[in-house]
Amino acid sequence: MKLTIVEYPNKRLKEKSKLVEKFDGELHKLLDAMYESMISSSGIGLAAIQIGYAKQILLLNIPDENDAQSRDALIEMINPVIIESLGETIYQEGCLSVPSFYEDINRFEKVSVNYQDRDGNTKNIEADGLLSIAIQHEIDHLNGILFIDKLSYSRRKKFEKEYKKMLKEKKISKNSTKE
Ligand code: Y12
Ligand code: CO
Q1: Residue 127: beta bridge partners?
Q2: What's the CA gap between 157 and 34, in Å, rounded?
Q3: Which of 14, 94, 161, 177 has the fewest CB atoms below 10 angstroms from its CB?
Q4: Distance, CA of 118 to CA of 67 (rounded, Å)
Q5: What pTM, to 2 d.p., does this model score?
Q6: Which domains are assigned to the chain?
Q7: Burial degree of 153 (CB within 10 A; 0-12, 13-18, 19+)
């Protein structure tokens, strides 16, 4: 089942996600549906709120050195908490909920994260590079924060203007293909 990705400026993206308490078949179905939606949309990370579920769930599937994504590399994080962070890095981020926009964002270089897997087992991961950035981006979603919320006032104003224009053009082209 492919689920629709919730896109900015939908207010659902501002919701704070709730702790997951039940690690049952329903959770497993949701995780599998999220994976399908992420892969079919060419994403490398997805939080449950992006498909309308305000639950502390995120997926990460970082491509390998040949730029290939495989299910073996899938990381499912439930109730994640950053327990340590180190350094600074800047990366041009994109988000399935903010299509066609990419912006330089400051993040921690390395993070240590506690989380639970789909069966409720406690895990820890020490991440750097793209994985560290993706984890921070997705944990922000669980707190109702988008990468565009981290832009300076002037960059945000520019983004809003361009995004509005893009939405208008999308609407026009959708209507013109109706007949
Ligand atoms: C580094 C920075 C941010 C993340 C968060 C996860 N972000 C994504 O998975 C973004 C995916 C994305 C995919 C798009 O589609 C294609 O490239 C075909 C895309 O393109 C359009 O919207 C037109 C934009 C974003 C992880 C790591
Ligand atoms: Co995102």
Answers
A1: 111
A2: 32
A3: 177
A4: 26
A5: 0.97
A6: 11-152 (3.90.45.10)
A7: exposed
Distance 101 CA to ligand 1 centre (A): 9
Taking only the tens place, the pLDDT of each residue in 104-133 is 999 999 999 999 999 999 999 999 999 999
Count Cα atoms within 13 angstroms, Cβ side, for 34.
29
| Residue in 142, 135, 133 with CA at minimum distance from that of residue 92 | 133
Burial class (CB in 10 A: 0-12, 13-18, 19+), 141: buried
Pocket of ligand 1 (CB under 6 A): 42-45, 91, 93-96, 99-100, 130, 133-134, 137
Find out whether 112 and 126 touch, Cβ atoms under 8 Å.
Answer: yes
H or E element at residue 97: none
